[in-house]
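Q: What would this complex look like in 3D?
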Amino acid sequence: MKCKGHMSKRSSRRDFITRSAATTATTATGLAAPNGETSNGAHIPALKTAHTTKTNSICPYCAVGCSVTIHTIGDKARNVKPHIVHIEGDPESPVNRGTLCPKGASLEEFVQSDRRLTKVRHRAAGAKEWTDLTWEEAIPMMASRIKASRDKGFVEKDEKGRTVNRLGNVAMIGGCTDTNEINYLLSKFRFSLGLLAYENQSRL
Amino acid sequence: MIVAKLIDTTLCIGCKACEVACQEWNDQEYTLGTFDGSYQTMPDLAPNFWNLIKFNEVEKNGGTSWLMSKYQCMHCADAGCIAACPAPGAIVQLANGTVDFAHDNCIGCGYCITGCPFDVPKLSPTTKKVYKCTLCSDRTAVGLEPACIKTCPTNCLTFGERDEMIRVADIRTRELKADGFKDAGVYNPQGVGGTNVIYVLNDVKQPESYGLPKDPVIPWTVQLWKGPMKVLGTLAFVGAILGAFFHFVIYGPQDPEVHGHDEE
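A: Here is my prediction, written as structure tokens for the whole assembly.
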């Protein structure tokens, strides 16, 4: 009886011809489909800076002062929270004419990288690990250490008796991405201490 | 208009601004590299790293030459990846000569990796698709230059119409020859129909010292497979279908009862 069941499932000659014609047509289409032909570019993503707000600024790093264009999403409408999508060189600038060095080219990460340090980090003398500090802890700690070092190392008069008021055992390094105002205050601060070893991080 | 990148390796200072610009424009994920004693960012290209400056250290004339070369997709006119790709529309050539991957159509077979004589495409283990430099097709589509070209601070990279780039490369070669680099020349390999990424090299007779293959061609296996074997395979395939069809038409269906292969 299994035979009969098998027989009943067997396709008719007409079905077979229809199906084989369909299979052949599909296969032929697949084989003839173009690959590598000139594309209309439908797969290309839209330009991510096409409708951004463009803000011109200056690269904060070294003293060359390259101009950059900061692209932020949105059109400055009230309900849009701006978010930087891209930063690149400004071709209008005679300084860099659109080019940027690797530091300048990475400015977007300077603003919004998740690897950016946002807390005070402290490694105690001899310790292997870094710990997080709050500003409330860090500022008195720095102040007391600067005071202790300055009390020890401040030179009011040199060996010939001339007034020098200098501090040789404390050094200070400024951040290149600080604002003009912060740099002004840093300079005032170091003059008030008499500190001599004074550098900026922009050339590192 | 066919566009091309011109890379004047003699002007490269190895600053890697092009690497950073590529990563930034294409929003690539950060990956931690390994330090292998070289200034090179990483040993090879990666699915999320499409533009690598190779720092080649070559012993020459009793000294060491430090040769920098930009390593990315060459955008060949006669591209091996396109020849090898079995997925319709997955690798396309744009009207400006760019060889670009349409990832919606990519099946992740990795045949393009075999087909590429420059070993450029890289298979991503997470998405199971293949990635490489797009020549910033989103930028070039609206008339902008690729991100790496825009950022280059030393004018080592230039971008423009292909014939113009070749003209500029020839002028630069003459300058280099006048400066004493008698083997200076343009690297534009004809084995792949010419590339849309053209190099000016100090020593064009030894492109290997820059990490570039001397005479790149599409591998013979790919040519065989997509050439004669494809025709033969198609013939065999169609033949089998026709054979089965005519066998059915002429002899009809096999009847188990008649032939006595009954299961009972």
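A: To summarize the key features: The longest helix of chain A spans residues 13-32. The CA atoms of residues 125 and 131 of chain A lie 12 Å apart.
Q: Very helpful, thank you.
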